[in-house]
């Protein structure tokens, strides 16, 4: 066994016995007391979506969680993420955006006249996880941001890899670790495969890897109604913390954002 510190007068056993690092072995009772104190402050690390039914079903989103937003192209994935960004801003929760899908001027224009406050790199210089981690840390240090949006997954993956599915699985695990390390709630926008007619999307429809749904804490799908393009369905396919599955919420586009249309939202105001 290698010595933990360079002290020739201590045996490895002596060093282990006196070791007081963050990863030291402790009793369960000590951990329980520590986590009990942490639970009291978790309210400060839970962020409301700003949609009553969604907040009721999921209890908001927490720091350390990795949430996947998916849907077919043009069905409102980015619009949903921008709506969450606006709603977080109204609750004084600052977001960090990595938008690889469109140029920054167009991206900012999509928010409309009243631009919410959030963070972005002044220039997208890379799409590697190392660079993204540095920018997350920079944003936390400078602005105390709490939420990260990445649009979208496939800009982070080398599609020439022999096993893209395993590559995506590794990427998902790294993003989850970043969410925990920097106390962030990370939203990852993902593409999905085309559906058969009259079939609802679910985790198996996430494109290129089943690991996306497995590794994510929350998975949501959005799709527009064919008869009413201004309206959409938001489906909670998975919510690990609350156990909610297969719940759907009706949305409608109002201006540059989405709002709940479902009659169920009125129920939560009375509780």
Number of separate domains: 1
Helix content: 25-40%
**Largest beta sheet: what is the strand line-up?**
4-5-6-3-7-8-9-10
Low-confidence residue ranges:
267-271
Q: What's the end-to-end separation, in Å? A: 59 Å
What does this structure look like?
The model is unreliable at 267-271 (pLDDT under 50). The chain has one domain (45-269): P-loop containing nucleotide triphosphate hydrolases (Rossmann fold), CATH 3.40.50.300. It has 271 residues and is α/β, with parallel strands linked by helices. The chain is globular and about 80 Å long. Helix content is 33%, strand content 20%.
Question: TL;DR of this structure?
Answer:
The chain is of the alpha/beta class. It is built from nine helices and ten strands.
Name some characteristics of this structure.
271 residues; eight-stranded mixed β-sheet; two-stranded antiparallel sheet; 9 helices; disordered C terminus
What's the helix and strand layout?
Layout: H1 12-17, H2 28-40, E1 46-47, H3 52-58, E2 61-62, E3 66-70, H4 77-90, E4 95-99, H5 104-109, H6 129-143, E5 147-151, H7 164-181, E6 185-190, H8 211-215, E7 218-224, E8 231-239, E9 247-254, E10 257-260, H9 265-269
């Amino acid at each position: 066994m290698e010595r933990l510190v360079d002290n020739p007068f201590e045996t490895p056993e002596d060093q282990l016995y006196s070791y007081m690092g963050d990863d030291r072995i402790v009793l369960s009772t000590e951990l329980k007391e520590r986590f009990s104190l942490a639970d009291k402050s978790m309210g400060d690390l839970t962020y409301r979506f700003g949609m009553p039914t969604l907040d009721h079903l999921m209890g908001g989103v927490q720091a350390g969680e990795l949430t996947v937003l998916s849907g077919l192209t043009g069905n409102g994935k980015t619009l949903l993420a921008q709506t969450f960004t606006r709603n977080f801003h109204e609750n004084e929760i600052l977001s960090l955006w990595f938008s690889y899908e469109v140029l920054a001027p167009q991206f900012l224009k999509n928010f409309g006249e009243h631009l919410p406050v959030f963070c972005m790199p002044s220039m997208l210089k890379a799409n590697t996880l190392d660079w993204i981690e540095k920018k997350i840390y920079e944003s936390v240090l400078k602005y105390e941001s709490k939420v990260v949006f990445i649009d979208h997954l496939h800009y982070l993956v080398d599609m020439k890899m022999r096993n893209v599915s395993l590559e995506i699985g590794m990427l998902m695990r790294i993003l989850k670790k970043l969410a925990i390390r920097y106390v962030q709630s990370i939203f990852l926008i993902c593409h999905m495969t085309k559906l058969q007619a009259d079939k609802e999307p679910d985790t198996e429809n996430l494109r290129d890897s089943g690991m996306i749904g497995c590794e994510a804490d929350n998975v949501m799908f959005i799709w527009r109604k064919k008869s009413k393009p201004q309206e959409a369905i938001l489906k909670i396919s998975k919510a690990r913390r609350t156990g909610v599955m297969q719940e759907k919420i009706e949305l409608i586009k109002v201006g540059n954002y989405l709002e709940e249309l479902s009659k169920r939202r009125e129920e939560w105001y009375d509780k």
